[in-house]
Amino acid sequence: MAVTDTSRSSGVDPAHRRVIFASSLGTVFEWYDFYLYGALSAIISRQFFSGANETTGFIFALLAFAAGFFVRPFGALVFGRLGDLVGRKHTFLVTIVLMGVATAGVGLLPSYEAIGVTAPILLIILRLLQGLALGGEYGGAATYVAEHAPEGRRGLYTSWIQTTATLGLFLSLLVILGCRLAFGPQFEEWGWRVPFLLSIVLLGISVYIRLQLEESPAFVQIRAEGKLAKQPLKEAFANRANLRLVVLALLGATAGQAVVWYGGQFYALFFLEKTLQVDSAAANLIIAAALLIGTPFFIVFGAWSDRIGRKTLVLGGCVLAALTYFPTFKAITHFANPALERAVAEAPVRVLADPADCSLQFDPVGKSAFRTSCDIAKTALARAGVPYSNEAAPAGRVAQVLIGSGNEAKTVASFAGSALAEAEFKSSAGEFNAALRSALDTAGYPARADMSQVNYPMVVLLCAWLVLLVTMVYGPIAAWLVELFPTRIRYTSMSLPYHLGNGWFGGFLPVTSFAIVAATGDIYAGLWYPIVVALATALIGALFLRETHRSPLPD
User: In sequence order, what are the beta bridge partners of 351?
Assistant: First the structure.
């Protein structure tokens, strides 16, 4: 049930440009709000989780980031139901107001030092509100645009909505960079709040624009015909055939799309900053440049999907990502931090420790004290961004860090800190960290990436390849999801698998990959998570989901 137009010409009908512009611009602003947190997670960990150790603080910050994603499916249920009951337009007006208010609240929130544990609790509550809002936003915008689109051009029309996530990230990075340059050292203290507070201005613009829109013609038609769903949730999920389609859309489409999307944007940024120790401003500029190169391909792949199919492009992108992630990220290491690459090759690091002495250093509440000799050694290496392998030592033996190979290997002994008093522990830790840093320096391990040695054109090109994969899987996904479900329950049905995929499979990628890397010592081990999910999606989608690009919207 779409606007009838049999034309297959490229481009957007002038009458629909306003619809696409208004929907897309509002969604850009909403993604801007949501992405600010991810880009500033390191600062936020210091501001709101300063009572925890450094590693725990960063993980806790990532979890707060993921908290917003965890509730996105619930937002999809709440606002999807509302959108199928009262309309698309009014529903995504509500979502954008909720998002803007929650984002501004982060900018006004007192720090941990000011109000203690209340600060991270309030922060996570605001993140939950953001996640609820975003859970309702995307489905409304994508459905609204698709229901305006002529037959044969839904891929092109909805691809403009697909650009909004990347454009929102791009806008957030530019605003953050501008604030860093404007406020200098004060950015770390209070200047980081300004990008959040700017959301008030963006909210006003978004609301004004969206108030000018009319309701979707497909929704207006079924309302006039008395065909509105009376119980959208029941009709969407109690119906076995539709529920099966929802599950297949999740596992055979959006899960793989989500991990490729996150792998190519956020994880690439985390990898540059946290693993390769590239200067934060430079890392943000690299990702921004890659996004600038890759973003037009959302439209390209969206338009192509009208010709060759949604399924082919989405699943093909998942397979390409799985095949190229390891060589791409290894190449990024080569061109971004060649000194680290050389050091790993010439002087590999091993942690020789009793396995019973080693714990999974994942402490979301900040209460655990990692004071065994193994944990102390691994924490120090993780903070230094140094890859290492694990070797088992006899039971009860104090852990050692071996740097280099053969007789030339330098050994730095850790210490058992569990029974030490606080002052004695700090003294021993200082001595160990100094000895370890000295040994790493001698072996050629850089404390930070040498920015004069970064091959910027190649790093940007490699990151642009990752973004290109993002555009390949994400450009056609909205049209594919919209075309799978009937108008009366479309908002509810397509929103849930989209946000389960992007909220859970994609949103938890950073924290999951970080934990895998910390446990194994392999800086590339975290890539296995998106690779496995992408391949599983390609297989399930190929076997069980139909192609939809030549079919009319189902009634």
Answer: 390, 401
